[in-house]
Design brief:
It contains eleven helices and no strands. It starts with a helix and ends with a helix. Helix 4 packs across helix 5.
Amino acid sequence: MDEHKEWFLKLSEKEYRDLCLEWIKANTHINLPKLQSYDEWLNYFKAISPLQLKALGDMGQGVLPVEAYSALTRWADILKSPHRIDKIYQAGLTKPKSEHKSITELASENDEIGVLKALRDQIAEQLEKGTGARDTASLAMSMSSIIQQIKDAERKAGPKKDTALADLLAGKPKRAPGARHGSFKAHTIAEIENE
């Protein structure tokens, strides 16, 4: 027995970690992937059975990256108190990343209306997820203020470029469908009726 103990104590950190991963693979039937973020690990562990999570929790501290172990302990906490799973969904960790520009990107482009709309959407998401009574009132007031700021900014910016009002204000009359572009003939109703 002392031979095995000596051999074990002579293992380097990498050899020990590899041995632990092999033990995990053999005893829990989990082949751990190489993931980068906490969210990815959190989503990975949701597909694993509670028994496998418990076994991995006993051994994982020595071999898992910090973000993986943090996600694993979060699931262990959820197994002890299942009502806490709501927090994962409320935090939006399981949602795909947005394809919209971030508030920082919009601000760096000096897009005032874009920043205000992004803030409005962010507050709306927080209200949708559910907040405390005090926070709900504060967020609702902030959202109302931001909506008014959006209206003011849009009014100040003038009509959108692709509308009839914008064309009228720019002095570009819209042609009726079927109108000939190169004709020098009369263009008023009275002149057409007299023909």
